[in-house]
Amino acid sequence: MEPAFARPRWLDRPASVARNRTPADARDALPGISGPAAPPGSKVAPAVDSTGRVGASGTGGPWIRSAWRLPGAAALVVVGTLSAHAQAKQSAQPPDPAAVQRGAYLLTAANCASCHTLPGSGSAHQLAGGRALPTPFGVFFSPNITPDPIHGIGGWTFGDFKRALRRGVSPSNTHYYPVFPYTSYTGMSDSDIEDLWAYLGSVPPVSQPNRPHELGFPYSLRLAMAPWKVLFLDQGPLKPEPGRPPEWNRGRYLVNAVAHCADCHAPRNFLGAVDRGRTMSGTRERLEGYEVPNITPDIQTGIGRWSVGDVTGLLAGRGMRAMHVGGPMREVVRNTSRLSEADRTAMAVYLKSLPPRFGEVKPGGMMGGMCH
Ligand code: HEC
Ligand code: HEC
């Protein structure tokens, strides 16, 4: 993956590294989300989004910021007048426990914690980021996504969060790198994004600063992501395909929008985007030392000889295949093994329905020819 992003002449400004707010910003933004009584996962957040992106500037917007500089009660009155009354009422509600639970499930299915937790850092650092993600463009470090108001996303609104997942845009309007797989998460439904948000608001905040990415030039230019996204971001949500059974559509949704299997199981083009014509056909480009196999149902080079049950079994962590699967896929299996059997079967059904494609890497890597 040698060639670089073409560097337009106008991109002569270094990337903004200020992903996180200053402590002052965070102080201003936090009460704007939910008030002291409710964590950031509270249901008030969607209302903020629908009233014109109060939080989209990353600082709560000028008017809400100044409102919050007034002493407590007065500020409530001002905000209540300026925005919907319903919003102020909702802010008293704690997050819905059922939404938190659904969010935890989605977080597992989407591998969020695998990337956003430093391996071996212990449960006290869950979701606090710091994991190194080496890529051909340099080393990325996952950020803290706990509700810490300074180092995490505690100062965010639901609107900020939704924009990050759907459009890959930060609260301060910078573009995220697609190593954060928003090109897949963009397909998630609004209600699933709300549930994820509810869950993230329920985890303990961890005060751990983010580590800056170590990227070579010109990848260090965040702005270069803007034209990239025009080319490669298909903004979601992913709509079900009519005429297909619900199980198949569920599998398609999980594989593509949530579990982002193609992010690893496809070759990338010279701009680092998934090659859509060869999606799921694997790649020789190694991930943590592992080549990534073809998981289309091609008989010779893919999972053509696997039954739906074989795929489901692997994702459940059962049997020889699961025992031998290594590297990044072992982490994926740790997550998929915690999903429902119905969801695993749906993913398997969908994968087996894909058009067979030739791939350079056959599954069954460590087992040699045993399966074939
Ligand atoms: C493959 C690794 C990976 C996975 C999986 C992943 N992320 Fe991230 N995420 C990153 C990286 C790396 C960044 C930083 C991107 C950048 O700086 O442009 C990031 C950025 C973010 C941000 C922005 C944080 C900030 O401070 O601006 C949020 C929010 C986020 N991720 C949430 C999630 C959620 C929720 C999930 C699961 C649905 C998830 N991520 C899954 C790697 C990942
Ligand atoms: C983070 C990258 C990554 C993601 C995401 C990922 N895989 Fe994998 N997958 C791999 C790698 C690497 C291997 C090869 C592992 C090995 O050789 O031991 C692999 C292997 C496999 C295999 C072959 C196992 C075998 O016995 O040879 C299947 C099937 C598979 N993945 C399915 C999936 C499905 C389905 C998803 C989405 C739910 C998925 N993968 C998501 C990286 C990934």
From TrEMBL:
Cytochrome c domain mapped to chain residues: 98-204, 246-355
Name listed for the protein in its UniProt record: Cytochrome c domain-containing protein
Organism: Methylobacterium isbiliense
Residue ranges, compositional bias (Low complexity): 31-42
Keywords recorded for this protein, A-Z: Heme, Iron, Metal-binding
Record has Zinc-finger as a keyword: no
Organism domain of life: Bacteria
Pfam families named in the record: Cytochrom_C
Region: Disordered, residue numbers: 1-55
Coiled coil: none
